[in-house]
Predict the 3D structure of the following.
Amino acid sequence: MANAGRNTNGSQFFICTTPCAWLDSKHVVFSQVMKGFQYVKILESYGTPNGKPSRVVLVNDCGVLKENE
């Protein structure tokens, strides 16, 4: 979850591929990529120095894995 201050929590999320110490104690880590990490690396390649992706990125299907999956 990300927020811009008090009472602004939203559904924005981060998938970090390197340590991000500046996020420590500011954001909650609540998940990890269990399958398809190769696609995360492809998405990472769309990054730019200004933080906006070089291509449109759309997550059109996602879900929750049960603990034993």
